[in-house]
Prior knowledge:
Helix content: 10-25%
Largest sheet: 2 strands, antiparallel
Number of strands: 2
Strand order of the largest sheet: 1-2
Distance between the termini: 74 Å
Radius of gyration: 31 Å
Structural class: mainly alpha
Order of helices and strands: HEE
Strand content: under 5%
Amino acid sequence: MRRYISLLLFIGFAFWSCEEDEPKDCAGVAGGSAVLDNCNVCDDNPENDCLQDCADAWGGNAVLPPVVLNDHSDDEDVLLQTYWLL
């Protein structure tokens, strides 16, 4: 009986004395705060996360074509161009 109690105490101390590992972030740092953004970049800076362009591509550089308006007053074409940048 004494042998079993000693064995149970040994197992109990071994179980409770082990520290649990903190989960690792995407950079492999235990307890870190880095996250993977939509462009598969792993860091902890939300300011440089990639954006979705007008073609729905994450991190893309597509822009809408210019909008051209013709004003026929004074018999001259007035071209107004507006670029949509993301």
